[in-house]
Amino acid sequence: MYDYGRLVFLDNQKTGSTYVSLFLKSCCALEHIKSAKHRPITASYRDDAVYFSTVRKPVSLYISLFQYGRDKRGSTYTSLRKRGLLDLYESFPRWLEFVLDEANAPIFQEQYGRFAHLGIGIMSYRAMRITLQYPTKTLLGAKSHDDLIDIWSRHNIAHHIFRQEELNVGLYQFATETVPEFFHQDAVRSFLDSPERVNVSKARKDAAVPGELMQRILEKEQFLTEKFYPDRQGQPSGPPLSLVSERSAL
Length: 250
What we know:
Elements: E1 2-3, E2 7-10, H1 17-27, E3 34-35, E4 50-55, H2 58-70, H3 75-82, H4 92-100, H5 122-130, H6 135-139, H7 145-155, E5 160-163, H8 167-178, H9 185-192, H10 211-220, H11 222-228, E6 241-242
Parallel strand pairs: 2-4, 4-5
Antiparallel strand pairs: 1-2, 1-3, 5-6
Helix pairs in contact: 4-10, 8-9
InterPro entries: P-loop_NTPase
Protein name: Sulfotransferase family protein
Region (Disordered): 229-250
């Protein structure tokens, strides 16, 4: 999370979070209090703050995580290396089949192994986790996949969640219309108009997903698909800025 006092960015992994953090650093008019990369807000939560996060198409997330590992980066790569499983990076379908198997959940951190048996995918879990104040404690009572979604819906702290595929448009609306008092307007326009900054976190297109594995992704990532990509099985739909909480943004 990136804490700016009245504004807090809950940085979900591989969903444009580095880009958003640079945007805040360049454009936010509030004082930067602290950062804890990819960690929930926990005890620093305040009722008077505006919380926002980002999501991304599940398939793109898996492709991006695979490519990140092929570059020998990230905790998933490290976990597979320690287990002598780097040969999985020779084939995207093999790697994907492995990471989708709940028996292999321990390769991921963030307490995912405690919830994988409920049928939730790592990408949906990460999106839930970062938008809960105390994710493990909050989700522990879940008995099913549907329970996880219901608990998240009741305890989600994010007022706004952006789709990575439409991030520039969403950030522009957020900074100029929703909470303009939190941003330097000239800096916002300059940052978002800069072509070299756009789409800094694209997944490469050289990894094909077999039909059977695609169906497994859609099943395991039901939370992401149905909440944020309800049309066309993972394609953007609706306005760029998704208001997903029943709470009102301050």
